[in-house]
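Technical annex, item 7. During the second reporting period the consortium partners agreed on a shared format for inverse folding records so that results from different sites could be compared directly. Each record opens with the tokenized structure and is followed by the designed sequence. A conforming record, contributed by the partner at site C, is shown below for reference.
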């Protein structure tokens, strides 16, 4: 029989799986499906710009007042609104719903990270294990389940769009503009004569709305409110608004957080490149929009499996080794993409790159999230808010220059940020190795409930 803590990890994981089955599928299609005047990419840029704004103040306020569980539910509702905006895509529908999604995005992810970190420390105290090891395992389990959302969301889009009989072969002269061969700014938006039939778009978006609502119900019904006592205490002894409002910025006084900014921003750059540039300039351009889902399924499957494996391996080989593997993988792929000229006859190659990218992204996601939880145990909400803020800044910058920089230049920018990451991250890792950060939750926080009931860990995290 699984423990109550592990059950909660599964509930959070499957809730995010359902939610991002919808959002991940929509994000992969935006640069191709809503290509008019760069509307799709612009909506993604607005989303992450809004996440930056919300990261500045919303996560600590919402988590301290609502608790992790209900903050997650509210954030999920904001994501579902974006699916509604895609029913009738236009500037007047996509941009407002992008803002709503962005405002709910940072509290959602900060609450999830806080919930997993608290759960990991509590379980470690209960079992007498090292907190960082359990946290790594929990983040590995989460991302193993969560990253598979790319498989299901993109499978839905490819199967539904594949029913369009109007999809035509791509002429040879158009293939010459794919990849980094040409600037990449004037790639045919759909890779086909016509966009997918409108009824197919409505069918897909309707399915995405359904699984988004399901995610909210999963969390609202089955997730335990483990920090209920803390949020009640906070509301009863409310801190000055200015203190809560500035919590995210006060943490910037810690030099370790400042040193991690390149690593965190790179996470945004590398994710945006795959969903915004690779899907449009390689896949859609050379194969057609109906192949985007299949290609991204490969990314999602690899990412999911590697997230689980690396979450387990971290305690044996260390974070630094895994980060080095991710950096080398991304470096090799970027260099290859600079010279590769995509063609439909090389179909297997289209899947190799997202598979390698998925392996690397699994490391960036699991280990960076776990690292923030380990380094800042007293300021989890503010730390993860900073994580989302700087990662989102990477997204915003990448999506902002997407419509006016050549693909070759985008690849060079990606390389530059990666090199900066490789230089700055080891500084923090070395300091943490020499001066380990002690966790807040310890075995002393354990008390027995009573005969016939399992032990309960009382979280003493400062709010």
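Designed sequence (site C submission):
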């Amino acid at each position: 029989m699984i423990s109550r803590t592990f059950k909660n990890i599964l509930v959070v994981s499957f809730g995010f799986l359902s939610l991002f089955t919808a959002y991940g599928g929509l994000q992969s299609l935006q640069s191709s499906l809503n290509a008019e005047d760069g509307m799709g990419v612009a909506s993604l840029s607005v989303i992450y710009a809004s996440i930056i704004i919300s990261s500045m103040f919303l996560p600590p306020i919402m988590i301290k007042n609502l608790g992790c569980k209900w903050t997650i539910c509210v954030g999920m509702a904001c994501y579902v609104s974006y699916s509604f905006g895609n029913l009738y895509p236009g500037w007047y529908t996509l941009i407002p719903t992008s803002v709503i999604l962005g405002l709910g995005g940072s509290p959602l992810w900060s609450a999830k990270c806080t919930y997993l970190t608290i759960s990991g420390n509590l379980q470690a105290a209960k079992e007498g294990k090292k907190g960082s090891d359990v946290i790594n395992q929990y983040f590995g389990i989460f991302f193993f389940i969560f990253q598979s959302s790319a498989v299901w969301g993109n499978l839905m889009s490819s199967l539904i769009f594949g029913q369009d009989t109007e999809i035509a072969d791509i002429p040879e002269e158009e293939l010459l503009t794919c990849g980094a061969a040409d600037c990449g700014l004037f790639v045919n938006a759909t890779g086909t004569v016509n966009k997918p039939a409108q009824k197919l778009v409505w069918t897909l978006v309707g399915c995405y709305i359904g699984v988004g609502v399901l995610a909210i119900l999963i969390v609202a019904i089955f997730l335990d409110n483990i920090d209920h006592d803390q949020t009640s205490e906070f509301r009863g002894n409310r801190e000055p608004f200015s203190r809560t409002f500035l919590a995210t910025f006060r943490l910037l006084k810690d030099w370790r957080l400042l040193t991690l900014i390149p690593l965190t921003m790179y996470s945004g750059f590398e994710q945006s490149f795959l969903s915004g540039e690779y899907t449009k300039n390689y896949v859609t351009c050379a194969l057609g929009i109906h192949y985007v889902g299949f290609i991204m399924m490969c990314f999602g499957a690899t990412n999911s499996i590697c997230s689980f494996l690396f979450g387990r391996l971290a305690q044996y080989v260390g974070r630094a080794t895994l980060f080095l593997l991710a950096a080398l993988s991304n470096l090799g792929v970027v260099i290859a993409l600079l010279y590769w000229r995509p063609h439909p006859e090389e179909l297997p190659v289209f899947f190799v790159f997202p598979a390698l990218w998925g392996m690397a992204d699994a490391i960036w996601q699991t280990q960076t999230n776990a690292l923030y939880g380990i380094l800042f145990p007293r300021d989890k909400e503010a730390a993860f808010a900073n994580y989302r803020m700087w990662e989102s800044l990477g997204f915003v910058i990448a999506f902002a220059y997407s419509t006016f920089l050549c693909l070759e230049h985008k690849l060079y920018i990606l390389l530059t940020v990666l090199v900066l990451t490789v230089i700055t991250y080891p500084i923090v890792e070395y300091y943490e190795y020499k001066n380990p950060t002690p966790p807040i939750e310890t075995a002393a926080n354990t008390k027995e409930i009573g005969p016939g009931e399992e032990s309960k860990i009382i979280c003493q995290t400062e709010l």
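The chain has one domain: 4-223+249-435. Strands lie at 446-447, 456-457. All partners now use this format for quarterly exchanges.
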